[in-house]
Amino acid sequence: MTKEWHKKYQHLLFEEKEHGILLMTINRPEQMNATDAELHNALSRVWLDIDDDPDVRVVVVTGAGRAFSAGGDLSWVSKMVNNYDEMKVAFKEAGDLVYRMSQCSKIIISAINGTAVGAGLAVALMADISLMAEEAKITDGHVRLGVAAGDHANIIWPMLCGLAKAKYYLLTADFIDGKTADQIGLVSKAVPADELMDFAMKTATKIATGPRDAASFTKRALNLWITQAAPAFDASLALEMLNFMGHDAAEGVAALQEKRSPKFD
Fold it and tell me: Do 120 and 63 contact (CB within 8 A), yes or no?
């Protein structure tokens, strides 16, 4: 069944499963599900509709094709460089994405089937339970672009993997495979790629067939830890946007578009 609110989001596919499980698929496979302006807006708003839908108990979010979501679409990201109006929109949406996922009363499970970067990684790791294919790779990647790690990392990485690991991987922008992410606590669990979706649906079913309010209230209480980190997150997001007004961001975006190594000052 296709509900009216499902139709609002061009690059998100929805499939209703048994027991109130909603499968949401990020769907720009030709672009490795990279976030353009429309998708970024959708990912910031969809949690409101999910929260308001009484039929949904648990959401499983994954990516179409071989990626979960491979960062920001460069044609969109480039518009934020030295552009206050574009940057202001991205600033609000990035904050909304994090806070609305955290405040959504429904349980969110991410099935990280492939590469996840940037806003896509924010969705993957802000989920209440993050399941990752052992072969998949993730990176925050912001410093490689010449901007501060602001999308989500400051609010959640230190809680997940500790400050030492968070600093190492955020400052180096090294890629992390599923096994490593599991070992350092950055994701809930890593499984072989061919078992990922089955495991995600089994986990969703276990939660969806349990007591709804108990699960929702447990999430609400646990996420008070995230709420306490809100000032640090807001600062990191503002500093990221400040970087978009500088020389490094212009060079970082140009280098990625031209497929060369950046030359930062």
Answer: yes
Class (C level, CATH) for 4-196+211-258: alpha beta
- Cα–Cα nearest to 119, from 191, 192, 32: 32
Model pTM score: 0.96
β-strand pairing of 129-133 with 67-70: unpaired
Phi, psi of 130 (to 5 degrees): -115, 115
pLDDT tens digits, 84-138 = 999 999 999 999 999 999 999 999 999 999 999 999 999 999 999 999 999 999 9
Placement of tokens 């010449």 in the chain: 146
Closest CA to 38 of 52, 25, 28, 51: 28
| Cross-strand pairs, 26 | 12, 63
Euclidean distance between CA atoms 26 and 61, whole angstroms: 7
Provide the greatest CA pair distance for the chain. Answer: 55
What type of residue sits at position 101? M
Helices (H), the chain: 37-52, 74-77, 84-103, 118-126, 142-145, 153-161, 163-172, 178-183, 196-208, 212-222, 224-228, 230-243, 247-258
The tally of CA atoms less than 13 A away on the side-chain side of residue 240 is 30
